[in-house]
């Protein structure tokens, strides 16, 4: 009601006067006030005076409303109207404006408001500093966010959470985990640092998931149990997701079964997807059936069916996947493009490319680029040039310009020794300025995370690592290994192709794991791209020759190499 407080000295405006000109309707204040008064109040029969121009608090309320709406960028328009009114913004105005910028990913406006904060002398306000930090982090300007955090004289829990979450979501998980550990050390030592809460551990768990850092994840989970944060279902879901993405699905399932809080539908979906990524289609479907047959818990939704379809994909369970897809119609679960894409992937992996193509033509909605990329990938696996060219043309028509589109088509041509076509594709990549995503791999060793790029020589032990690779190549050749040179796209000599394959990031990480550990513990590697066929063959042989279990998580699934075989059964 404070928005419409009336003063008797205020002159009456025109009937359709708008107090806030940016509202989509004329605000007739006297009439509104009469409706708000009790029916028998004598004030309803009086001629009510009109309000003055809106105050700062009134503008703040409207800006805050826009910041929380579906169109937060409208808060910028509102703020400009406030300045024209004129009305002087305060620290809360700046805070609400920055929250709108964070939701709208408006980096330039955040920078401009930062300047306004400094000019107005609000930079000592901890709440405003935290909101500004959060805006920079969510807009992707993490370097500025880090500088702002380091320059804060006083930090609250929200400041730590904003930067940890921002780094984790901004593909800088190592820094996020480092900051979380710094926070934990300060809290344990009693240096006045706040106790990590639910939001803090969610950021740390996300970082562990991206890095495949099992030991660090264990530490975070120990803290969660010690602080009773495992009573929060959102935290439990994040723990399950972390363990599943780190390749220890048994621990994920143990957390799932031992939850003290009620499982949400997200809990079930996360666990089913965990089994799917691990290639354990049977357990994923068992859990799906348990969920579908339950009376008290949530029933499967579209995400659940998608997770189950992914499980069938990775396990090569074609008939079961098709049956699930048909069940969706029976139980009135709406299908979207991802469900169709999963079935196309399922049939494509099985080599049934014509059936997969027919599904793309029978879809009630338009296929998205991911679906055509899926078909292109299947065409590459089975060397179907005609289907690959069809999918590639569709991607060009849709304006897709990702590196993967061109690389997959190049792979198909290279496998058939069509170097002229490979050159044509590479020329198209240059013309469109398509940048290839560099391959890299993470490996955790003794609680420390190391990163390797293809052909990397930045590690202090790089000479020892390369010698180990030479030793590996020598040993596996005795078992009949021949480099899969078709995975090298350039029209170069055999020896050069062999060298190009030898120093892929996952091979460097594997050699480092063998050099740095003498025990029989598993070697965990996390790769940002799909593992290539040659690396897959090499790691299978290494697992047998060196009696080591190697777990590789690539972009789509886990590969568990043991005794010369892989859990994917060479189906990925």
From TrEMBL:
Gene3D superfamilies: Tetratricopeptide repeat domain (1.25.40.10). Keywords: Repeat. Residues 480-572 form the DYW domain. The keyword Aminoacyl-tRNA synthetase does not apply. One of its GO terms (molecular function) is zinc ion binding. Belongs to the PPR family. PCMP-H subfamily. This is Pentatricopeptide repeat-containing protein. It comes from Sesamum angustifolium.
């Amino acid at each position: 009601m404070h928005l419409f407080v009336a003063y008797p000295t205020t002159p009456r405006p025109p009937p359709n006067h708008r107090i806030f000109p940016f509202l989509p309707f004329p605000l007739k204040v006297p009439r509104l006030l009469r409706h708000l008064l009790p029916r028998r109040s004598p004030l309803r029969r009086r001629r009510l005076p009109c309000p003055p121009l809106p105050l700062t608090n009134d503008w703040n309320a409207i800006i805050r409303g826009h910041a929380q709406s579906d169109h937060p960028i409208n808060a910028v328009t509102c703020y400009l109207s406030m300045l024209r009114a004129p009305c002087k913004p305060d620290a809360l105005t700046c805070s609400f404006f920055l929250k709108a910028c964070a939701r709208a990913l408006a980096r330039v406006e955040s920078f401009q408001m930062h300047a306004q904060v400094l000019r107005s002398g609000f930079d000592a306000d901890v709440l405003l500093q935290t909101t500004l930090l959060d805006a920079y982090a969510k807009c992707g300007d993490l370097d500025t966010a880090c500088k702002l955090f380091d320059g804060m004289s006083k930090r609250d829990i929200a400041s730590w959470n904003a930067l940890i979450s921002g780094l984790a979501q901004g593909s800088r998980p190592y820094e996020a985990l480092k900051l979380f550990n710094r926070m934990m050390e300060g809290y344990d030592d009693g240096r006045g640092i706040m106790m990590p809460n639910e939001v803090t551990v969610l950021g740390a768990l996300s970082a562990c998931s991206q890095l495949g850092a099992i030991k660090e994840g264990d530490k975070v989970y120990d803290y969660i149990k010690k602080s009773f944060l495992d009573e929060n279902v959102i935290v439990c879901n994040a723990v399950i997701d972390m363990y599943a993405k780190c390749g220890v699905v048994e621990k994920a399932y143990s957390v799932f079964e031992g939850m003290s809080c009620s499982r949400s539908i997200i809990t079930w979906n996360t666990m089913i997807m965990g089994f799917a990524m691990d290639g354990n289609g049977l357990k994923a479907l068992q859990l799906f059936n348990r969920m579908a047959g339950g009376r008290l818990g949530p029933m499967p939704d579209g995400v659940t069916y998608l997770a189950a379809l992914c499980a069938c994909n990775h396990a090569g369970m074609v008939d079961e996947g098709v049956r699930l897809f048909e069940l969706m119609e029976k139980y009135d679960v709406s299908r979207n493009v991802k469900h169709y894409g999963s079935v196309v992937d399922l049939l494509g992996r099985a080599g049934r490319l014509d059936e997969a193509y027919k599904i793309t033509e029978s879809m009630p909605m338009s296929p998205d680029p991911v679906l055509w990329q899926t078909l292109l990938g299947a065409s590459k696996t089975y060397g179907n040039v005609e289907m690959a060219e069809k999918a590639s043309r569709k991607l060009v028509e849709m304006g897709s310009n990702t590196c993967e589109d061109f690389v997959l088509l190049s792979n198909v041509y290279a496998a058939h020794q069509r170097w002229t076509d490979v050159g044509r594709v590479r020329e198209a990549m240059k013309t469109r300025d398509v940048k290839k995503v560099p391959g890299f791999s993470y490996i955790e060793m003794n609680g420390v995370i190391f990163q390797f790029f293809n052909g990397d020589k930045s590690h202090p032990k790089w000479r020892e690592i390369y010698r180990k690779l030479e030793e590996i190549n020598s040993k596996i050749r005795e078992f009949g290994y021949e480099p899969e040179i078709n995975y090298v796209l350039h029209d170069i000599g055999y020896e050069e192709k062999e060298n190009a394959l030898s120093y892929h990031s996952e091979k460097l990480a594997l050699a480092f794991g063998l050099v740095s550990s003498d025990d029989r513990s598993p070697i965990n590697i996390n790769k940002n791209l799909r593992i290539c066929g040659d690396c897959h063959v090499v790691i299978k042989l290494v697992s047998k020759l060196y009696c080591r279990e190697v777990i590789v998580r690539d972009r789509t699934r886990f590969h568990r190499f043991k005794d010369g075989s892989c859990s994917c059964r060479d189906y990925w």
